[in-house]
Amino acid sequence: MLVDFLKGSALALKHMGNFIIGKGNVTLEYPEVKREQPAFFRGRHRLQRYRDGLERCVGCSLCAAVCPSEAIYLEAAENTDENQVSAGERYAEIYQIHLLRCIFCGFCEEACPENAIVMGASYELAMNKRTDFIAEKDDMLDPAEKGFGDYHEYDPYISHVTPESDKSAKGDPWAVKAEH
Amino acid sequence: MRESNAVGYLDDKHEEIEALCAKYPSRRSALLPVLWMVQNKLGWVPQDAMKEVGDIIGVTAAEVYEVVSFYTMFQQKPTGKYHLGVCHTLACAICGAFEAIDYIKEKAGINHGRISDDGRFSIEELECIGACAEAPAMLVGETLHGNLTPASIDKILASCK
Amino acid sequence: MADQSVHPALKPGDEEIKLVINGKEVVGKKGETIISVAAREDYYIPHYCWHPALSVAGNCRLCLVEIHLPNPRNDNKLAPLPKPAIACQTPITEGMHVFTDSQLAKECQEGMMEFLLVNHPLDCPICDRGGECMLQRYSMEYGTPHTRMRDPKRKYLKPEADPLIDIERNRCIMCTRCVRFCDEVAGEHVMGVFARGSDNYIGTFGQGPVANILSGNVIDLCPVGCLTSKPFRFKARVWELLQTQSTSIWDASGSKVTHWTRNGRLYRTTPPSRKYHGVYTVNEDTEEFIDNITRFGSDFPSHENRWDESRVKFGENLLPAAFTEAVRRVATGLKKVADEHGPDSLAILVSPRSSMEEGYLAQKLARDVIGTENIDWRVSFQTAEAAEAAAQAFQHANGDLEDGFDAVVVLNGDYLHSVPAFAMRLKEHARLTGKPIVQIGHHHDAFLAPHSKYKFHCAPGSTAKALQLLSKGVGGDTSVVSELAKIFSTESSRVEALITLLKGVEGRGLVLQSLEDLNGLLLPNEVPAALAFVGALGGGWKYIPTLRDRNAFGLHAVGAQPKADAEGKSVNARQLADAIEDGTIKGLLVLGADALHHSPDRERLLASLGKLDFYAVSDLFDSDYTRIADVYLAAASHLEKDGTFCDVEGNLARLASTEGLVGGARPEWEMLTGIATIMGSDNFAYETVEDVFKEMMSVIAPDFKGTFKKLLLAGPRNDNSIKDPGGARTHTKDYNPGDYRTDGAHFRWTGEPVAIDDQTAAPRSVPESGFDGFLLTWGEHVQGDDYHLNHASIVELLQKAPYVELNPVDAVKLGAETGDRGTLDINGESYEVELKVCEGPAPGVVYLPAGLGGIKLSGLTDTQAVKLEVVKSNALAEAGAGNTA
């Protein structure tokens, strides 16, 4: 019994010592300092862009279809030569996510065929009004300079899935998780 | 039956067409020969001629266009006075069909597109025309010329007045 | 099953063939193909190009099955065919063993899917077909998860061909369903497969439109995303939409439809959905084709001009009011007029698009509460006599296409543009069975013409005489032949052949009469003539009058018009303007003001409405007729209410509400219930429209055994919009085309035999030949001016350019051909029209579809001579321009 007591005291003293010398702190000076999130963190949604600023989202509604809490609503429209919003023919004219309904499961990210919607690193989700919880497209879109990749790489006429790529498609296909 | 008397490409051929149609159990069977009449007259088959042929034969223009676009020997674009079809399939290609084509283009003055600047010649690369024994070979209209050489090409072109 | 004397799938007389599919012994009839027998036995064989309503093309090769046949040279032992065979084209034979899911069949399906996907783009996320695409489904079920195709895919430029149909050729798999549909069902080979081999593509000649009233069906027929709907393009994904089984309100063909809605808005309308692997989805194999107006025009209720609040007149202004207040005003207003001027000073007008329940309640209100016979729906007829003749025609309507026919006599009319789906079914029956169509009259339907065995043109107004003589002729009187030949301007031998044909029909015959032709002007003569003709032909012959108005038959059935013995004593819809002018009618209630727009003398009617003491109207939109009302009642549209409709064949169909009521709009049966109750009746205690239905059916069809819900096919209304785990949210239920013909719900009337006297049959005097013009005939066009259709989102895209039909004989005289333009002088006004040369009108007659391009026919009282001049365009130059394939 005494041995156990000494063991416990030693652990307490060890942590106390660590605290004094400033090693292994788990608390942060939030909000001045923000915690780094791991790549798999599922925070507030972001809509990504291509390098040339075009939106990746093509308004296919697969995210809305897969959403278990029916938090996503979108209406698509057709790109024109004057108003090219996304790559391809179709873009999301209205894209809303009801953040109070959202359970941050990340299914939308998984369903997205264009790597357009991703769960971002932001976990600051407090709002003043209930209506603010409906995130519009503009609230979620990345700034144009954060675009990556070239949409010309995406060509619906070239098949992406081959037996080889099928087998190798293990793990996270999107290795880069762009920072928020 | 033709439903009107508008001016058309085949106005002078009505009797001939009726005689043709009489040969077949149904009028639409005469489609190919009637299209040949148009092509022989104009060198190609314009779209309004397809409409006219359809009216005469009693089929829709879409059906005529199906036939015209199926057979590559029906020209859908204007041709020159002499239409040169040069074979470029294996035997002819080995024996220098591509050189012959370049030479013909140069000599006939076909600088861009497929019609010469003076409108006299048009050129088309054909798949095998069955004259492998005389490769490289070419069709001028319906006349076959084999064993093409620069000299023989000059002669052929010169004979096309 | 096989040991029964006649298999349920066979008719007596069919040659029976026994075969085995996947180990199960089944029976088919000689000439059937494997795929249709398998479909009947619930063995699904995947297919793209095969369609039950179309000819067999056999080019998708997806339905390959393994077949073993008894080998006669080896003691009839089973021997496999050396190669798999396509189920869609292989006829069944005795003792055949078919394997639809053997290893070989599966390998074939897998291989074919890979081939079909070789050039198919992977753009499912943006493809409107996504979610209901046969390629997607079969890929999952029969395909492989990967492709070995490494080369670039074939790409085509995208044509701008049709305003309503979007063509994306890259996605095409060359099943040629659309080509065959246009060729066989829609009647014109306007789409084609162009070029050869791997360069094949589908399209129209010169990238023109698929100009046909039935063209929209190619969208459903297309198993992939090649042909999609332009109005629906990118508007929503199909799985997000709520499906409701309902019926069309546009024409009396009685098309069944599925409305696809979301958030109270109609996105698209298709033929009834079907269940595929537990999910309701669009039916690619449907045989219930619908016309373009039904398909694209049904979304008018969401137009911005909708008045969805009831309004009451305060001083000069019509101000929004509560529904109850508006109803109270109507009731007190009607009561006041009735008290002051007597019950016969009131009239009620019902729109022919009202449901049967509404018609029933309206006539109950008129007869039981007010006490008048002034109730009518027949606004669109030219004269009061025409309306009466129409009622007589309905009283004898007893035919049905479902029963089939051995011969059909079609009288005057443009059936394709009045009852499109009905005309299509009629033509399909004639085309597939080879039964003869006989067209008689001054106007033939050009759509039916290719399948008409006999076509007899006569002068306008001579149809009745011709029918009278024909009746005598089939009775054995041979003296009429020469006279008939004169009327028809043809040889006696052809008339004799016709009489022989008609006499020879022993089984079933049909006589079709369009009540639309000349807005019924000639009906007082032609209806008795036609009925006498049917009588003379014998018992097997049935009679179908057709009218575009959707619920004309239903409203006739519930008695929403003056009773036969009261005609003449009461005011019918066509006498209304006169009656208001001379002060007989002081108060008017109009249910559905859209009907007034169809009145041939609408200007006069509109002017007279101001003289009424009390005028109440229900409608959806702001219009000339609603603006001047004392009370405007906001009505629920066809998407918001329930009701029962009856089509030209007497079949009942349910209209079903999609997502409930909008704003302050209420269905008309609620209004009528309220009005009657406030006026002091206690017989109007209806909780739901179903109560009205039950009472109505007990009165008009005591034998009716079905239920309101059964009629809907959609089953009990499922209000919880929770997603079905399988997929789409839906109001629909398994749909079998035969279901709606529930016992006793099929209206067939039997009228007294009709005899026709010489006076009625006498030809009307028409201008003698020799005048330098044409006789004008006209008829309602389903695409024509319609107050509701004008509020549909696609109204701009409809081809509403006015055209006239012209006989080929006259065209040669004028030197005109289809596509030329001309000017038509009517009543001193000149209109520019397009000329269409076809077999429709008789020589010397032009036919003008009413309501296209704002041509006013309202001043016309009879057929009259009009002038038609051809403006010759340089047709060749015009056709050559802009044609690049």
Q: What brief labels describe this structure?
A:
heterotrimer; A: about 180 residues; alpha+beta; Alpha-Beta Plaits; 3-stranded antiparallel sheet; 5 helices; elongated; C: about 900 residues; alpha/beta; Rossmann fold; Dimethylsulfoxide Reductase, domain 2; 7-stranded mixed sheet; 6-stranded mixed sheet; 35 strands; about 25% helix; disordered C terminus
Radius of gyration of chain B: 18 Å
Low-confidence stretches of chain C: 713-744, 875-885
Indicate the radius of gyration of chain C in whole angstroms. Answer: 29 Å
Superfamily (CATH H level) name of the largest domain in chain B: Glutaredoxin
CATH T-level topology of the domain at 318-380 and 552-704 in chain C: Rossmann fold
Structural class of chain B: alpha+beta
Number of helices of chain C: 24
| CATH secondary-structure class of the largest domain in chain B | Alpha Beta
Instruction: Summarize the biggest pleated sheet of chain B.
Output: 4 strands, mixed
What's the order of the H and E elements of chain B?
HHHHEHHEEEH
Task: Note the overall shape of chain B.
Answer: elongated
Task: Describe the protein in words.
The complex is a heterotrimer of chains A (180), B (161) and C (885). Chain A is α+β, with helices and mostly antiparallel strands and 180 residues long. Helices cover 22% and strands 13% of the residues of chain A. Chain B folds into two domains: 11-70, NADH-quinone oxidoreductase subunit E (Arc Repressor Mutant, subunit A), CATH 1.10.10; 82-159, 3-Layer(aba) Sandwich (Glutaredoxin), CATH 3.40.30. By secondary structure, chain C is α/β, with parallel strands linked by helices. Among the domains of chain C are: 16-114, Ubiquitin-like (UB roll), CATH 3.10.20.740; 318-380 and 552-704, Rossmann fold (3-Layer(aba) Sandwich); 389-546, Dimethylsulfoxide Reductase, domain 2 (3-Layer(aba) Sandwich); 767-880, Beta Barrel (Barwin-like endoglucanases). In chain C, strands 17-16-27-26-25-18-19 form a seven-stranded mixed β-sheet. In chain C, strand 1 and strand 2 (24-29) form a beta hairpin. Mean pLDDT of chain C is 85; it is low at 713-744 and 875-885. Chain B binds chain C through residues 1, 3-8, 46-48, 50-51, 55, 59-66, 69-70, 72, 76, and chain C through 188-196, 204-206, 808, 811-812, 815-818, 837, 875-876, 879-880, 883, 885.
